[in-house]
Design a protein that fits this description.
Layout (H helix, E strand, L loop, with lengths): L1 E3 L5 E4 L6 E8 L5 E9 L2 E8 L3 E3 L5 E3 L20 H7 L9
Antiparallel strand pairs: 1-7, 2-3, 2-6, 3-4, 4-5
Length: about 100
């Protein structure tokens, strides 16, 4: 599973500390991501790059998408969905011959 933060998302270090704002995303060799974050400290804008495993969202959750990670096998599954047309629905409801258009 691929875990990603969104640009502009508010995060905090898992170890604690101030609220950080995600400003940039960088892919890493292992398939995960690191993020440059900015925050204010004593009226000075600070920034640093952290791996995703060091961060946690302040609200909500990180995005998670199930994609094939290097070295894993992901099976694609097709789903068939049956969609009824308006005519089929009207026929099932007993409204044969009525034209509402």
């Amino acid at each position: 599973m691929e875990i990603r933060a969104k640009i502009g998302q508010l995060v905090r270090l898992r170890a604690g500390g101030p609220v950080l704002c995600v400003t940039c995303e960088y892919p890493m060799a292992d398939g995960s991501y690191s993020y440059t974050c900015q925050w204010f400290e004593d009226d000075r804008l600070r920034d640093y790059t952290f791996p995703i495993v060091a961060l946690e969202p302040v609200e909500g959750e990180f995005e998670a998408s199930i994609k094939g990670q290097p070295g894993t096998a992901v099976e694609e599954v097709e789903v068939e969905v049956e969609v009824e047309t308006e005519a089929e629905i009207e026929t099932e409801d007993g409204d044969k011959g009525k034209n509402y258009h």
